[in-house]
Amino acid sequence: SYVLTQPPSVSVAPGQTARISCGGTNFGSEGVHWYQQRPGQAPVLVVYDDNDRPSGIPERFSGSKSGNTATLTISRVEDGDEADYYCQVWHSDSDHVLFGGGTKLTVL
Amino acid sequence: EVQLVESGGGLVQPGGSLRLSCAASGFSFSSYSMSWVRQAPGKGLEWVSYISSSSSTIYYADSVKGRFTLSRDNAKNSLYLQMSGLRDEDTAVYYCARGRCTPVSCYSGVAIDYWGQGSLVTVSS
Fold first, then answer.
1. Which residues of chain B have pLDDT under 50?
2. Alpha-carbon span A98 to A91, nearest angstrom
């Protein structure tokens, strides 16, 4: 099976920058998407197609992709950013949508 | 306002069946692809199934293929997931989700831009 690998946890102090990686497959030309999920809530799209933001998502959230690794960057981290973050991509070889295992962001 | 409201979840015994429904409103349902994504208690997100806007393309995760059937009724703005042969490991919150389709791009690789609040399915004897 195909797997997207994320670090289980990332910790950062308020005002600092958090970076969450996602890798393990050749993304090719497929866009990588990122979701934020707070406890007890449905996921929210924060970055789509590698580096675009939906309306209403702060500019502090950005994405990038290089080779087999995609990265979600959250600048000037706030307490409210504490949540689980998931990456997602379409895997054309298997006709499957893949989700990363998720990363718990802790704001110190 | 886009709304996705799931229903049909509940407690079912192993081997049993259940049908989830998702009522969509606030957008042109027939123009969007849809998916189901589930989340087991305390676990991460797991994609379950995808259906294109016209139902011409349907994909399933290996874990549910042959047991689950995804369908939609564009006239009723509704999405359905028929689940049979349920197992303990199918216990999860099931989310109905909309693909971020545009006039230029609407395929299985688009992001999910709206999610329902989820419907809990518990498989237990």
1. none
2. 7
Q: Over A26-86, what HEC string results?
A: CCCCCCCEEEEECCCCCCEEEEECCCECCCCCCCCEEEEEECCEEEEEECCCCHHHCEEEE
The yes-or-no verdict on residue A1 having pLDDT over 70 is no
Residues A56-75: pLDDT tens digits?
999 999 999 998 999 999 99
Other Cβ atoms less than 10 A from the Cβ of B22: the count is: 25
Using CB atoms, pick whichever of B37, B47, B117 lies closest to residue A96: B47
Judge whether B112 is closer than 8 Å to chain A, CB to CB: yes
Which residues in chain A are closer than 8 Å to B116, comparing Cβ atoms? Answer: 42
Q: Are strands B10-12 and B119-123 parallel, antiparallel or unpaired?
A: parallel
Closest by Cα among A53, A54, A72, A76 to A63: A72
The shortest CB-CB distance from B108 to any of A44, A97, A101 is to A97
> What is the spatial distance between Cα B93 and Cα B118, in angstroms, rounded to a whole number?
6
What confidence tens digit (pLDDT) does each residue in A2-51 have? 789 999 999 999 999 999 999 987 888 899 999 999 999 999 999 999 99
CA distance A76 to A16: 5
Count residue pairs from A and B with Cβ separation < 8 A.
64
Q: Do B95 and A96 touch (CB under 8 A)?
A: no
pLDDT (0 to 100) of residue A89: 95
